[in-house]
Amino acid sequence: MISAISWVPKGASIAVPAEVEPPSKEEIEEMLKNESLDRSGDIEDEEEEDMDVDTSKRTDEVAQALAAADAVGKASETGNGTKDIEDALKELDMDHYDDEDGGFELFSNGPGDTYYPSNELDPYLKDKDDDDEEVEDTTIKPSDAVIICASNEDDVSQLQVCILEECEEGEHNLFSHHDIILPAFPLCTAWLDCGLKGGDKGNFVAVGSMDPAIEIWDLDIIDEVQPIMVLGGIAKKKKKGKKSSIKYKPESHTDSVLGLAWNKTVRKYLASASADTSVKIWDLVTGQCFSTKKHHTDKVQAVDWNKHVPDVLLSGSFDHSVVLVDMRYPSHTGIKSEVASDVESLAWDPHDQHSFVVSLEDGTVQCFDVRAAASNPASGCKPCFTLHAHDKAVSTVSYNPAAPKMLATGSTDKTVKLWDLANHQPSCIASRNPKAGAVFSISFSEDSHFLLAIGGSKGSLQIWDTLTETGVAQRFGKNSKGKADSKTEVKL
C-alpha cells in the first residue's frame, strides 16, 4: 500500500545521485562495539528466572551437540563414511580427468590467452552501449518529475523514488528510480530543501512512522542505510522480566507520527502531529524541538502551515477539533474550532490566506474562514459550508496550486473527486475510480499543476492529468500553461 506521496520540485535533484560509500573497518568495529554494549546492558537488566531459562536451554543444546558428535564417531568407526567417499572419487575418475575429450587445458594458447589493450575492446566485458544506457536510465533530467511514495508491501517498508519522464508527443513514462528501506511502517512524508549538509539548499524527505522518531533522508544518495538526521525517538529500551520500559530522547514524541508539514518560508521549521496528542515544532538546523503544543485531547492527525502567513499553523485531531496557533504569540492557546467527526486531513487554501478545508472520517469536507472568529476567538470558527463528498472517510485532500478554488478529495470508498469551491457553493466537476483501492494520499504537482498523484491500498502509484476532464478544462483551463494530453494518465 501507498500511505503518503510527496512531489519533488523539478531541478531539485542532482542529475546522477551518488552511491553510498561502504562503511570503513573502523566504522564497522565501532558499530559492533556499540551493539555489544547494548546487549550487555540488556543482559544485566534481566531477572534471574530468565537467566535460568537461558542456562537450561544452553545445556540442552550442548547435549544435542554431543549426541550428534557421538553419532558421527560411530559412523566413522564402521567405515561406511570413508567407503562412500572412495566410491564417489572412483566414479569421477579424477586420475584421468584431463584426458577426457572436449576438456579444456589449464594452460593453453586458446582464446583465454588473448590480450586486450582496453576494456572497451574486450568482448567478454559489458558492452559500452549497455553502460551508457544504464547511466542514462539513472540520470534525472531537469524536465523529469520526481515523486516520493511511502509504501509497505510484504512487511517491507520503504520510500520509492519514482520518475515521471516526459517523452515525445506528450507521452509520459513512469518508473521507479531507487528505493530507501525504512525500519518502520511509514505514515506521512514532507519534502524539504533546508541545507542540512551545508550550503543553502538540499534534497531531503522527512518521514513519520509508527515509531516516535522522525527520520530525514537524503534523496541524492542511493543505497543509503541511515537517515541524515533523526528527530526524537527512543533512547533506550530496558527489559525487566516480562515487562519492558522505554526511555525517549529529550522532547521526543512518545507515539506514532501521523502528520508532517515543512515551512517553505521559515525553512528550518518542521511541524509534526502525533498519536501522543501533541504538536511539535522542530528546528532542522539544530535537530531540536523548540515548541510543543498540547491543545488537543486525542490523536493529532494532520498539520499545515499557512502559505501566506508562515507563522500560523493549523492542526486537526480525533477530538473533533482544529486549532489555529500563531508562533509569534507562544503563550496564546490558539483558536479552537469544532468539527463534526474525526479529522483525517486538512489544507490551507494557497490562494486565500483566510480559508482552509478539513476532511473528516464521516465522508464530509468542511470549509472555514478564520475571519469569522475575529470577533470572538473563544468560540472558534463556524464552517462556511459542509460538503458530503464521499460515502466513506475522506482520507486526503489537495488544492490545485494554479487554479483557485479547485480541490481534489480522495476517500477510502476508492474514488477521487474534483471540486469547484467558488462562492462557497461546491460542485463536483469530475469523479474517478483510479483502481488504486482505498485512496490514502493524493497530491497536485507544483510544476505541472493539473497532474494529480494518487496512492492507495493496492500500492500502485497513478498519475491523473485532470485537465483531460471536460469539466476541469471548461472551468479551469485558462489556468493551465499548456494543453492536456489524454495519454498522460499513467501508473507504476
TrEMBL record:
The keyword Heme is assigned to this record: no
Annotated GO CC locations: nucleus
Regions of compositional bias (Basic and acidic residues) in chain numbering: 22-42
Compositionally biased region (Acidic residues): 43-53
Pfam families on file: ANAPC4_WD40, WD40
Region (Disordered) residue spans: 18-57
Record keywords, A-Z: Phosphoprotein, Repeat, WD repeat
InterPro entries reported in the protein's UniProt record: Apc4-like_WD40_dom, PWP1, WD40/YVTN_repeat-like_dom_sf, WD40_PAC1, WD40_repeat_CS, WD40_repeat_dom_sf, WD40_rpt
UniProt-listed GO biological process terms: rRNA processing
Per-repeat ranges for WD: 250-292, 387-421
Residue ranges of every copy of the Anaphase-promoting complex subunit 4-like WD40 domain listed in the record: 249-307
UniProt-listed SUPFAM superfamilies: WD40 repeat-like (SSF50978)
Matches recorded under PANTHER family: PERIODIC TRYPTOPHAN PROTEIN 1, PERIODIC TRYPTOPHAN PROTEIN 1 HOMOLOG
Protein name: Anaphase-promoting complex subunit 4-like WD40 domain-containing protein
Organism: Stephania japonica
